[in-house]
Amino acid sequence: MGKLRRLAVWLGLLGWGSSGVSCDLGFECEGEGGFTCTDGVFLSLTTTDGTLKDGQYAFNFVVDQTPRRCSFTHTNGVESEISAISLPCQEGVSMSFDQDLDCTSYSDGTYTANGPVLKEKCFPIPTSWTLRSHFSGLPQHLEVTVKRDGVTLLDAVPMLAYHIERPDNPHCGPQCNVASLSLNFDGR
Q1: What is the average pLDDT value for the chain, to the nearest integer?
Q2: Sorting pLDDT into bands at 50, 70 and 90, what band is 99?
Q3: Is the distance from CB of 172 to CB of 25 less than 8 angstroms?
Q4: Residues of 72-91 as b/e, b for ≥16 C-beta within 10 angstroms?
Q5: What Å distances lie between residue 72 and 44, 52, 130, CA to CA?
Q6: What is d(CA 121, CA 50) in angstroms, rounded to the nearest whole number?
Q7: Which pTM value belongs to this model?
Q8: 59: closest CA among 40, 75, 44?
Q9: Which of 7, 162, 178, 187 is most buried as measured by Cβ atoms within 10 A of its Cβ?
Q10: Nearest 5°: CA angle at 31, between 26 and 35?
């Protein structure tokens, strides 16, 4: 599945609603009740093999000199019937533990003026997960520390580079400033 599609699914899981959008240059836009977006940093934390060892995990963030924290206890098998788990976090950060998906695009034979209509069929990957976090606003500095049972697995200060996103299409509103980051650590 493409990164934009995964972001749209994730934004939907976070409960971001919809509002009216404007359109320019005469392009077809979703219109009233269409897409919305928010400024912020979207962070994906993955492990080298997609799995996590059992233990107490602490995710410590420093966002523009303000500390934030999320934590959870991981036990293999507990999440087997759940595709996304919202983690307990301090105000100013949201985090989820999401099962990765294997998706395939296909056409059902339907066509529009722009060509075939493509659909996706997705299946969960049983042992592969991604931790996703969101920080609202336009932070200029971010520090990320991941610990399991008190042992540091990741200590990073990633560079934040913002770009403009238009979730409906490049010629329609709304517009937001987004920094997307992916960090990897050894979860075994």
Answers
A1: 77
A2: confident
A3: no
A4: bebeeeebeeeeebebebee
A5: 16, 12, 14
A6: 21
A7: 0.69
A8: 44
A9: 187
A10: 115
